[in-house]
Specification:
Chain B: InterPro entries: ETF_a/b_N, Rossmann-like_a/b/a_fold. The structure holds two protein chains of two kinds. Chain A is an alpha/beta fold. Chain A contains 13 helices and 21 strands. Chain A has three domains: about 60 residues, no CATH class; about 170 residues, HUPs (Rossmann fold, 3-Layer(aba) Sandwich); about 120 residues, Rossmann fold. Helix content of chain A is about 30%, strand content about 20%. Classes of the chains: A alpha/beta, B alpha/beta.
């Protein structure tokens, strides 16, 4: 007799027997009785995984039959999440994301992705310049985005010269080959301060980024400059380089600023930033406004609409039909022939969403649509759609917003 | 208090013909908020376009004929401007555009001037809030508003001499008076700068005609799709409540952004 496990067809058959409807017996032939099935279809992969057991010498075996020797789950647990470790980098590339609101934005990830591209080309590491009070989970996000080292900057966001000096200090001390900034308002300013303070080579507003060449427009965007050797300081425009999407990197080192730098809020700064203030929504240019409330053909009472916009704290906008009819001024028109918005939220009251209008709100994340037509393009694009007559909804919104406004004031 | 405005004599992006740069017109607007005594300064050859600039309110324009800077190397323009400001000690504020429009367009010049003179520099200035009109330079505290995205304005307090770079889109364009442009005094100034004074930090590279470079898809997938919370024929109150709740989640609405300070 060999020690081999033999199938016992009768026992298997008995194990598959189940009471069915009306007291009749059924055989469940495909599935395994103690295996969770969703009842409609077999899942061959799940069955196979269920039967896989760790065998000798680390090899996995598949044991078919009713007797299941071990837990297949153990095999899955053996595969630990892998991380890339860069132990001895040949070079270092720094990235200085903005960390707006202490968060790693999409643009920031793209900058780190570009730094990763350069570092991988030269077997190097990516160092991130980040504020000292960066939360833990954002550091994990940095590892996911492709960071190998962290360099903490001293606090003092309100003094740009001091920030630039700290960045330059790390750039020179770490011996990095390049430093990348986003061409955002903050990043562009910082990059240029670092460039002139350090006397570095510089290229700004790069539109095409690769290891072989970087390309940026010049001569009023009528020509472009192609540079084969990557400059020391570079700023990249948004959406030009893909963010890093590979395996997470392990953060191998963190460097903190020296104590003398970390403390001294010496009042030598000639430039000091105050607290930012949101603009008055009623007078903001439409392209800059964060919250736009827009009227379309479904709106008849424009006095009421204006009152609602004022109470909601939005900037008034309009569709082309409304502007053509003269109910709203031409500069409020949203869309292809009007203004392209950069808002965070767009409330479309009685707008069905012509393609030309949708072009104007392409970058808006949150859209609220009030429309009578369930199948309107604006409703399909909206994150909240109300299928109702705009003229009925507006007074209710006005009333509710006035109540809330009084509560928050009082 | 005299205020200088740096003029780059740019070209129009569409036609390629010489035209005033919008952000430099904003710069003239800022300078007019600061003082009535303005002087324009241009590095390079004198052009008829300078009269166009002067029509926005400059009585005098100095043209720095610097033979080294004529190649418009980025570092050399900054060095020439710094040398001119050193020679004119009564000027404590230089206002520039966002970036040139027709040169290398790196946007480095204001920073270079400030670095060379050890002045303060502020970029993206939208408006001047308060300037001390006192003549003594030490107490010259200046408050300007810096334009940030989405209509946010950040006050900036500046001590002493400074370079202000205007925002390229936000700002006011002063009224153009043709007669002022005709009457403006345009003067050539010869400066002798040592050629190695300006650091040449522009990597030169090849110049080609511009072509549009691809961008990643900017719309995130959930933004174009819409999460599809649809309320069909709700009562008016129900609909209003849904809208207000949605706005509150985004931090907008009557108790939201309008009254709140946004730090960014």
């Amino acid at each position: 007799m060999t020690g081999r496990i033999r199938r016992s067809p009768f026992a298997e058959r008995a194990a598959r027997r189940q009471p069915g409807q009306a007291g009749r017996l059924r055989y469940v032939m495909g599935g395994i009785s103690n295996h969770v099935m969703d009842g409609r279809r077999r899942d061959p992969r799940a069955e196979r995984a269920y039967h896989t057991v760790p065998g000798g010498a680390g090899r996995r075996r598949i044991v078919w039959g009713s007797a299941r020797a071990g837990a297949a789950v153990a095999v899955a647990a053996e595969v630990a999440p892998r991380m890339i470790r860069v132990e001895n980098p040949a070079m270092l590339v720094l990235a200085a994301p903005d960390f707006e609101d202490m968060r790693l934005s999409r643009f920031d990830r793209q900058i780190i992705g570009a730094a990763r591209l350069v570092a991988d080309g030269g077997k190097g590491a990516v160092g991130i310049l980040c504020p000292a009070d960066l939360p833990e989970e954002q550091q994990a996000a940095l590892a996911q985005a492709g960071a190998d080292r962290l360099f903490f900057l001293p606090p003092g966001q309100d003094n740009p010269d001091r920030q630039a000096r700290a960045v330059l200090h790390w750039f020179q001390q770490s011996g990095a080959a390049h430093i990348l900034f986003p061409e955002s308002p903050e990043g562009a300013d910082r990059a240029r301060r670092v460039t002139v303070a350090g006397g570095c080579s510089f290229m700004g507003a790069i539109q095409a980024f690769s290891l072989r060449a970087v390309i940026a427009p010049c001569h009023a965007m009528r020509r472009e400059r192609v540079v084969q050797v990557l400059p020391q300081v570079m700023t990249l425009e948004e959406d030009r380089v893909a963010a890093y999407a590979g395996l997470a990197h392990e953060i191998m080192g963190m460097d903190y600023p020296a104590d003398s730098e970390r403390k001294g809020p010496e009042q030598t700064g000639r430039v000091r930033f105050g607290d930012a203030v949101a603009g008055d929504p009623a007078s903001l240019p439409l392209g800059e406004a964060p919250f736009v409330v827009s009227a379309g053909n479904g709106v008849h009472d424009f006095t009421q609409f204006a009152a609602m916009v004022r109470v909601l704290g939005g900037t008034p906008g309009a569709s082309r039909v409304v502007c053509d009819a003269g109910h709203m001024p031409r500069q409020t028109q949203v869309g292809a022939s009007g203004t392209v918005l950069d808002a965070a939220c767009y409330l479309a009251v009685g707008i069905s969403g012509a393609p030309q209008h949708l072009q104007g709100i392409g970058r808006v994340e949150n859209i609220i649509a009030v429309n009578t037509d369930l199948h309107a393009a604006m409703v399909a694009r909206a994150s909240l759609a109300i299928i109702a007559d705009a003229q009925d909804v507006m007074p209710a919104v006005l009333r509710l917003a006035q109540q809330e406004g009084e509560q928050s004031c009082g | 208090m005299r205020v200088a405005v740096a003029l780059s004599c740019g070209v129009d992006a569409l036609s390629g013909r010489a035209a005033p740069v919008l952000s430099e017109l904003h710069a003239i607007g800022l300078a007019r908020q600061l003082s009535a005594d303005l002087v324009g300064v241009h590095v390079g050859a004198a052009m008829p376009l300078l009269r166009d600039y002067a029509a926005y309110g400059l009585n005098r324009i100095d043209v720095l004929m610097d033979n080294a800077a004529e190649e418009r190397g980025a570092g050399l323009v900054g060095a020439a401007l710094a040398a001119w400001l050193r020679a004119n000690t009564d000027i404590r504020i230089l206002v520039t555009g966002h970036r040139a429009c027709g040169g290398l367009d790196s946007g480095l010049v204001p920073f270079e001037v400030a670095h060379a003179l050890d002045w303060a520099v502020v970029s993206d200035v939208a408006e001047v809030v308060g300037a001390s009109d006192t003549e003594e330079k030490s107490s010259g505290a200046l408050q300007v508003l810096q334009a940030r995205p989405r209509g946010v304005r950040r006050p900036v307090f500046i001590e002493g001499a400074c370079v202000l770079a205007a925002h390229d889109r936000t700002g006011n364009v002063p009224v153009r008076v043709h007669a002022i442009g005709r009457a403006a005094h345009i003067e050539n100034v010869h400066l002798t700068t040592t050629s190695d004074e300006g650091q040449d930090n522009g990597v030169q590279g090849d110049i080609r005609p511009w072509r549009a470079r691809p961008r990643l898809m900017s719309g995130t997938s959930d933004a174009t799709k819409g999460s599809g919370n649809v309320l069909v024929a709700p009562s008016a109150d129900e609909a209003a409540r849904a809208i207000m709740n949605h706005l509150r989640q985004l931090g907008l609405g009557p108790s939201g952004a309008a009254s709140r300070n946004v730090t960014q």
